[in-house]
Amino acid sequence: MAVSSLKIKTILETLRDRYPVVKTQLEHETPFQLLIATILSAQCTDNQVNKVSKTLFHAYPDSNALAHAPLSQIKKIIYSTGFYNNKAKNIKACAMALIREYEGVVPKDMNKLVKLPGVGRKTANVVLSAAFGQDTIVVDTHVLRISNRLGLTDKKDPVKVEFELMEIIPRRYWSYLSLQLIYFGRDICDAKKPRCLECPLLKICPSGKKSR
Ligand code: SF4
């Protein structure tokens, strides 16, 4: 959909002023740990993942250790992140695939990443951006919601939104914008109760509520 360059410039500048320094909230020391933490973050807060991943990575810090970990033990550790049966199977299978196909090393390639168990485009984009410094747009629930509210897209499918945003946002802003929108979603443009009257983008937002 057509979006004016002035509107895009306003959004990018406003978010940059508000959040000049942004980074993923998922704690990790290696690309592998970020990959596993991101898989665990589905339907779960980053804070909760961080509590669990501390124990998980202490016991199983790399792909080799996690690939050989008993499934029952992994389930016990990650239980509180929800969907723990599937997540435990996926992270163990992912570690095994890394050993089998990439000598235990996380590939820096979207096509290879999305073939790993439990890894979709969103997870792959998080890893490519935060662990390898590539320009990517991560469309999580905040980015999806706020892009629609601001009129940057009218699509509801995260992959379609990712490609639409890549068309209209200059590449050098991709990774920052995703993180800034995530901060902004937690801070101002809440899913249930957006704080429009305090919002610096109210003037250009078609969904903004100008009164209580
Ligand atoms: Fe979100 Fe309201 Fe701001 Fe629009 S004006 S971006 S809906 S908080």
Mean pLDDT: 97
**Radius of gyration over C-alpha positions, nearest whole angstrom:** 18 Å
Number of strand segments = 0
The CATH superfamily name of the largest domain is Hypothetical protein, domain 2
- Largest sheet, strands/sense/barrel: none
Describe the structure.
The structure is a single chain. With 212 residues, this protein is mostly helical. It has eleven helices and no strands. It starts with a helix and ends in a 25-residue tail after the last helix. The mean pLDDT is 97. The site of iron/sulfur cluster has 14 residues, from helix 9. Iron/sulfur cluster binds next to helix 9.
Keywords:
212 residues; mainly alpha; Endonuclease Iii, domain 2; Endonuclease III, domain 1; 56% helix; elongated; binds iron/sulfur cluster
Summarize the structure.
Helix 2 packs antiparallel against helix 8 and helix 5 (71-78) crosses helix 6 (84-102).
Layout: helices, strands, pairs:
Blueprint: H1 5-18, H2 31-40, H3 46-59, H4 63-67, H5 71-78, H6 84-102, H7 110-113, H8 121-130, H9 141-149, H10 158-168, H11 174-187
Helix pairs in contact: 2-8, 5-6, 9-11
The structure holds iron/sulfur cluster.
